[in-house]
Amino acid sequence: MIMDYLSSLNPPQKEAVERTEGPVMIIAGAGSGKTRVLTIRIAHLIHAHKVDPFQILSLTFTNKAANEMKQRIERLIGLEARNTWMGTFHSVFAKILRVEAPKLGYPGNFTIYDSDDSKSLIRSIVKEMRLDDKVYKANTVLSRISGAKNRLISWETYINDPFILADDEAAMKPRVGEIYKNYQKRLFRSSAMDFDDLLFNTNVLFRDHPDILNKYQQRFRYVMVDEFQDTNLSQYLITKKLAAVHQNICVVGDDAQSIYAFRGADIQNILNFEKDYPDLFVVKLEQNYRSTKNIVETANSIIARNKSQLKKNVWTQNDNGDLIELMKAASDNEEGRMVATTIFEEKNNKKLNNSDFAILYRTNSQSRAMEEALRKLGIAYRIVGGLSFYQRKEIKDLMAYFRFVVNHEDEEAFKRIINYPKRGIGNTSVEKMMVAAYEHDIPLWEVITNSKSFLPGRAANAVEDFCTTIRSFKIEVERKDAFEAATSVAKQSGLLRELYEDKTIEGLNRYENVQELLNAIKEYVDNPENEDKSLGAFLQEIALLTDEDQNKDSQDTVTLMTIHSSKGLEFKYVFVVGMEEDLFPSQMMMQSREDLEEERRLFYVASTRAMDKLYLSYALTRYRYGRLLNCEPSRFLEEIDPTFIKVNKKLSTSMSGSFRESEGKSGFVGLKKPPVRNATARVHSPSPDFKPSNTNNLAAGNKVEHPKFGFGKVISIETEGVNRKAHIHFDHFGDKTLLLSFAKLHIIE
DNA sequence: TCTTAAGCTGTTTTT
DNA sequence: CAGCTTAAGA
């Protein structure tokens, strides 16, 4: 059976499969059958070389990719395939850390903090250190810390490295190192690791415990890394160490598709791989089987402008296919309408399914306009990523209960649930308890169980009740399976009742979401593949799941997602929307030449998802943060060789001057253009003689200045009891109704 | 301590 | 715009 597959491979593919020993690097262009090669290679190892599946470790980028590969191998060689180690870096090494964590002083039931938890923790640390949270923004600080961890810089190294300190000093953030230190200490106290810790601590484990390293080196005789261009130093060193004994390391990647630098991915890993392994065997897969010539050439024409890349020549034998179609819309809403209409028509004309279409965008917020348009035409769609199910408040709340029952030291979980539902324990009490734990250097749980010594009577009683509840949950969790325990926790905690009583639409949704979480747990328990049916096991399972890993692809839907999450997928028809300067390429990324190159690679990834036809679209105006902005076409549109492009005339003519009225059902209305303002007008520096004045005698006709909105003229004043409303026309922001911020107004005349 | 409402602020991508 | 924080009143 394997032989059939071997003969179906082209020569370089075959080489890649058959070269099983020693270091191998496969440079795989887009659509070159990479996954196929990888799966056949693994099947070949097991089948032809009689390698025990337990000895093969494959690291992929997403859980989805891992599952898909597993299924494919299973089809090739049967159930044996299940025994290979396959998963993301994070999930595989989290699994290993569950076993080995005690060696690092962590309990095996450590919690994994997602970035929301991390940010929240940083926020409280910044507050405790009495630092300005506008200077030390959680996002910025976290990415700084994360960057350090990805490069294996511990907080000890960080605060002693003169270069890093100088860097922070220059950025006017000299105390990031201290925050890093406190952050790590708090994580440790909470028995928690963040995403980066999973890899960082694996490195520490392998560094400090040669016996353990050796154990895994012996176990994994073959190591394979997919999407190698997206590994960071921390990940790279792990694989290098694991493969050090047997040297059977096979990495697969495409430098042209490296799009995760912001997460610490280092393209040098792939560019310099040869230096680390002088006897490296390199295979290039350059034939594209996926896309038409026009699409391949378009992608090539953009990527050719990048300076730093490995030489390769991606080509295809496929037909020319249709030209790339360029669509121009008046607004983001019309862009959505054009895309939706095109899908509708193409679907009917060519007898396609919804699932043959994908809409790709640079930022998640762009999905709005697309959704609305699709909904109006009754086209089923599904959004991948964005606010994931597990990030919703109600889900996080219930999960926080689960987490806290399993790990009593989980501070972030504690803060979420201690007073939700309301039980009369306010912020003051919570802070007192945390301070007590910190000052006496005792576990949080000890403070909670002895609340009488730290809190006034009423609050202490409430905490005691809370404590009893948690204890009873713990007993249930230990005795029952995940589903029964979870249901009981949801009910007894009062959370379910709280949501049930909320009869608003959002409330109903939240209630349903919680039910859905319980269903997911039921599914987990009923799945015979899961041996450990405890709630703790379920938590571990999903901590590293992302939205796209959920298998809901049974229905026929158009797929909407960011370019980042589209990697590895393919669709017959692909729309890349929002081709506007500052959006794609992103303004934030346009700092240096390297960053522009990464945006080009992003375009490369997006366009090579398409098999048959590629559409590019842009809008002339777009709502962003409640403000309508002017847009300019992306520079990428000029960088593409124009011979591959045709402009969609039919739709572009109909657009001039047609704006839709706010929520009118009538659709197009030929109204005068709404005022278009630039974002720069938003920040106003008050004039030197600005002083907020007593505005008691504010009246219509007054000229005023506001620190944020700038200069304006009062149109009218309305009085409702004690409250006053001022309708003011601001020069840059148009009409505004100020209710309270009178204090910030300054009357000029 | 809880509720309500105004004010403020982000503004990229994800394990 | 939307989600969060803050401030004031109950």
Automatic annotation (TrEMBL):
Listed GO CC annotations: cytosol; DNA helicase complex
Biological process, per Gene Ontology: recombinational repair
A molecular function (GO) term: ATP hydrolysis activity
Annotated catalysed reactions: Couples ATP hydrolysis with the unwinding of duplex DNA by translocating in the 3'-5' direction; ATP + H2O = ADP + phosphate + H(+)
Keyword Cell division applies: no
Family statement drawn from the similarity comment of this UniProt entry: Belongs to the helicase family. UvrD subfamily.
Name of the featured protein: DNA 3'-5' helicase
Domain UvrD-like helicase C-terminal as annotated: residue spans: 293-568
Gene3D superfamilies named among the record's database cross-references: 1.10.10.160, P-loop containing nucleotide triphosphate hydrolases (3.40.50.300), PCRA, domain 4 (1.10.486.10)
EC number: 5.6.2.4
Domain UvrD-like helicase ATP-binding: 7-292
Positions with a binding annotation for ATP: 28-35
Domain of life: Bacteria
Keyword annotations: ATP-binding, DNA-binding, Helicase, Hydrolase, Isomerase, Nucleotide-binding
Pfam families attached to this UniProt entry: PcrA_UvrD_tudor, UvrD-helicase, UvrD_C
